[in-house]
Amino acid sequence: MRLDKYLKVSRIIKRRTVAKEISDKGRIKVNGKVAKSSTDVTIGSELVISFGNKILTVKVTSLKETVKKDEATDLYEIISEEFKENLN
């Protein structure tokens, strides 16, 4: 499954266009490599996503084309969630 679609279906990122923008800016790594929006995601892949002030690391546990809102968190397991400190 494409990275941008997985992020949207799993609701890690709400909209696919936003997922595409973030990944094409090099802010997402899949298994340690910078990923584009078209990168294939498989079960067991580790995603590191850099949001504005947060770095989220998740492991892909399931792939589905569509899921209900309450089942979305079953598609991944959070490994770590780090918050960056203000550098002012």
Automatic annotation (TrEMBL):
It comes from the Bacteria. PROSITE patterns: S4. Residues 1-64 form the RNA-binding S4 domain. One of its GO terms (molecular function) is tRNA binding. Keywords: Protein biosynthesis, RNA-binding, rRNA-binding, tRNA-binding. GO terms for biological process: rescue of stalled ribosome. Key component of the ribosome quality control system (RQC), a ribosome-associated complex that mediates the extraction of incompletely synthesized nascent chains from stalled ribosomes and their subsequent degradation. RqcH recruits Ala-charged tRNA, and with RqcP directs the elongation of stalled nascent chains on 50S ribosomal subunits, leading to non-templated C-terminal alanine extensions (Ala tail). The Ala tail promotes nascent chain degradation. RqcP is associated with the translocation-like movement of the peptidyl-tRNA from the A-site into the P-site. Belongs to the RqcP family. This is RQC P-site tRNA stabilizing factor. It comes from Liquorilactobacillus cacaonum DSM 21116. The lineage of its organism: Bacteria, Bacillati, Bacillota, Bacilli, Lactobacillales. The gene is rqcP.
